[in-house]
Automatic annotation (TrEMBL):
This is Thiamine-phosphate synthase. 4-amino-2-methyl-5-(diphosphooxymethyl)pyrimidine binds at Q40, L41, R42, A43, K44, N72, S111, K140. Condenses 4-methyl-5-(beta-hydroxyethyl)thiazole monophosphate (THZ-P) and 2-methyl-4-amino-5-hydroxymethyl pyrimidine pyrophosphate (HMP-PP) to form thiamine monophosphate (TMP). GO terms for cellular component: cytoplasm. It catalyses: 2-[(2R,5Z)-2-carboxy-4-methylthiazol-5(2H)-ylidene]ethyl phosphate + 4-amino-2-methyl-5-(diphosphooxymethyl)pyrimidine + 2 H(+) = thiamine phosphate + CO2 + diphosphate; 4-methyl-5-(2-phosphooxyethyl)-thiazole + 4-amino-2-methyl-5-(diphosphooxymethyl)pyrimidine + H(+) = thiamine phosphate + diphosphate; 2-(2-carboxy-4-methylthiazol-5-yl)ethyl phosphate + 4-amino-2-methyl-5-(diphosphooxymethyl)pyrimidine + 2 H(+) = thiamine phosphate + CO2 + diphosphate. GO terms for molecular function: magnesium ion binding; thiamine-phosphate diphosphorylase activity. It comes from Paenibacillus methanolicus. Residues 10-190 form the Thiamine phosphate synthase/TenI domain. 2-[(2R,5Z)-2-carboxy-4-methylthiazol-5(2H)-ylidene]ethyl phosphate binds at T137, G138, T139, G167, V187, S188. It is an enzyme of class 2 (transferase).
Length: 214
């Protein structure tokens, strides 16, 4: 699938540790049913063949919902399953090398933790950036929260799509939207929720409410 003309407001990332006893496929199917606009496979601890199997499953699932699939870290797996793109951190393969490998049609997202990284990724041709972690989060332990002040700065200065991430829940999402985010991303709040579809619907409701106010 090629979907360079993508847009999204709710970005859902996998996190298998958050749903013991429930299958990844079921949880992500529920997230899609609830309105997830884009899905990322992020499997830091799994052996590569397991990541590949999960990527194949999510490729089929996201295609059914016509939602882009992004693979964290593994360009080769993204290519093997014809994912829509990859997401890379500051210590991963640099954007220019990833672009040279993937070509212009794939989505490349870059994690950023300050405005200098954001502007660098933007100038380098990233399709979107992550802004975070906004709040402290057990999904990325030990990383300093950037707070909503970086969200505010990104809203003022970043012209490509940016997505706020890190510790975002239904209880604090309004503060992130008030700071100017139009897109939010969550792992634990969604895949760890007892009702991922309902939780996604509630996030979408908040996103729509803020979009209507803008
Ligand atoms: N990058 C910045 S924060 C984060 C990632 C992958 C973790 C987000 O997970 P959660 O559970 O929504 O805080
Ligand atoms: Mg990475």
């Amino acid at each position: 699938m090629k979907s360079k003309t993508f847009d999204f407001s709710l970005y859902v990332i996998t996190g298998e540790n958050y749903h013991p006893g429930r299958k990844l496929e079921q949880v992500m199917e529920q997230a899609l049913r609830g309105g997830a606009d884009i899905v990322q496979l992020r499997a830091k601890d799994a052996p590569k063949r397991e990541v590949l199997a999960q990527a194949r499953m999510l490729r089929d699932l996201t295609a059914r919902y016509q939602v882009p699939l992004i693979i964290n870290d593994h360009l080769d797996i993204a290519q093997a399953v014809s994912a829509d793109g990859v997401h890379l951190g500051q210590e991963d393969l640099p954007l220019a090398e990833a672009r040279a490998i993937l070509g212009p049609d794939r989505i490349i997202g870059i994690s950023t933790h300050n405005i200098a990284q954001a502007l660098e990724a933007q100038a380098g041709g990233a399709d979107y950036i992550g802004v975070g972690p906004v709040f402290p989060t057990g999904t990325k332990p030990g990383r300093q929260a950037v707070t909503t002040s970086y969200v505010r700065e990104a809203a003022e200065r970043v012209t490509i799509p940016f997505v706020a991430i890190g510790g975002i829940t239904l209880d604090n999402v309004d503060a992130v939207l008030e700071a100017g985010a139009k897109r939010v991303c969550a792992v634990s709040a969604i895949v760890g929720s007892a009702e991922p579809a309902e939780t996604c619907r509630a996030f979408k409701h908040r996103l729509r409410a803020f979009a209507a106010m803008a």
